[in-house]
Amino acid sequence: MASSVTASIHSSICASRLPSLYLSPSRITPNHVLLKTRSHLDTRLAFSSLPDIPNSPLPVEFSSKPLRLAGWSQTIRRRGSVELPVVKAAAADAEGHVEPAKSFGERFPALVTGFFFFMWYFLNVVFNILNKKVYNYFPYPYFVSVIHLLVGVAYCLVSWAVGLPKRAPIDRDLLLLLTPVAFCHALGHVMSNVSFAAVAVSFTHTIKALEPFFNAAASQFVLGHQIPLSLWLSLAPVVIGVSMASLTELSFNWTGFISAMISNIAFTYRSIYSKKAMTGMDSTNVYAYISIIALLFCIPPAVLIEGPQLMQYGFRGAIAKVGLFKFVSDLFWIGLFYHLYNQVATNTLERVAPLTHAVGNVLKRVFVIGFSIVVFGNRISTQTGIGTAIAIAGVAIYSLIKANMEEQKRVRLSCAASSCANKYGNSDL
Predict the structure, then answer these.
(1) What is the pTM of this model?
(2) What is the rounded distance in angstroms from the CA atom of residue 114 to the CA atom of residue 135?
(3) Which of 20, 429, 393, 422 is nearest to 240 (CA)?
């Protein structure tokens, strides 16, 4: 009788196409398995090497329905209609492995993200204030731009030396890709500093609020991307606001205005070339290499344009006004703050959604304009204040619309990829 039942069970399992399932004895803890055949005849299989236990807590039923074990929650689906549950306790748990404790960032992600935003704003505000104070007694923006990048490069070299982060290798192809990005970065950086030295910090940042307009124009007419009408309409307040602020700006001069506009164009093309130079390298290493190449681009114009004046009376005049130690320390700190705020801005972007980063970028500009007015006591006309507010509001609207469009695009691509995965995944069942 036992042999016939065993034979029927064996034939049923073969007919159910279970040869690809591997059942480990350690997975089934009961010593007896109660089997219910199609004729509802209860029988008991006893393994001679194990003691007899009268009542098994995990019954197994064989019927026309898929195989299910009561008390087991997870199911592995295989070909056909066979379903094999898996015990929740994993083999690693049985061996005594303990799940590692979560880090502070994993336990409090919102707190860490808030800290990144705070450091981004703090470093940016401090950089702009210290930078303008240096220009008040040392108006040489080409040389100061070199110092910004030189301190940043030194910081990167020290970080590589201690392995934080580990230096990523660079080849000739990657160098060719990053060179146009670095050139645009150098040009935009130098022109921004020329504007900072010529006019009020608040006015330069108001002009730089036009950068989204140049980005949209380059995307439409250079890259051939179709820009929605809603984005163009959101840029109208930016153009109107900047125009209003420029007409009555007390510190206005053409050098500061044109330099800020060139900076906008340079950073726009930097974004275009950055998209073409997307690599698998982490952002910290990419920014380090860009800083090194940009430094090489900045040195020649600094020597040619400002070199003779610096050697004649530039350094001598600055040291006479503030002393050697303060002069050198000011240059070091503005270079360090420049590099750190750019690096923290990149790290913040990696932690949040594009929409959050866009809003944060607009608020950062508001903070910089507000603090610069308070610290330097800049007098602004009513029309300049209204124009600046309109321009910032336009940038906020543009950033929100663009970030929403990018998020919707990302969701569509994710859904399409998920549908394809489900389609090809189900074809194996």
Answers:
(1) 0.68
(2) 32
(3) 393
DSSP H or E run through 146? helix 141-162
H or E element: which one contains 335?
A: helix 324-351
Strand partners, 43: 35
CA distance linking residue 30 with residue 51, whole number of Å: 11
pLDDT at position 316 over 50:
yes
DSSP 108-142: -HHHHHHHHHHHHHHHHHHHHHHHHHHHHH---HH
Q: What's the CA gap between 246 and 240, in Å, rounded?
A: 10
Q: Which two tokens stand for residue 236?
A: 């109208």
What pLDDT sits at residue 270? 86
Peptide bond preceding 165 in cis form (omega within 30 of 0): yes
Categorize the per-residue pLDDT at 421 as very low, low, confident or very high, splitting at 50, 70 and 90: low
Q: If you search the block for the tokens 């004649």, which residue do you land on?
A: 312
Could you tell me which residues are beta bridge partners of residue 86? 74
Strand order in the sheet with 42-45: 42-45, 33-36, 60-61
User: For residues 91 and 392, what is the distance between their CA atoms, to the nearest angstrom?
Assistant: 58
Strands 33-36, 60-61: pairing is parallel
Closest to 192 measured CA to CA, from 178, 182, 207: 207
Angstrom distance (rounded) from CA 44 to CA 52: 10
Amino acid at 81: S
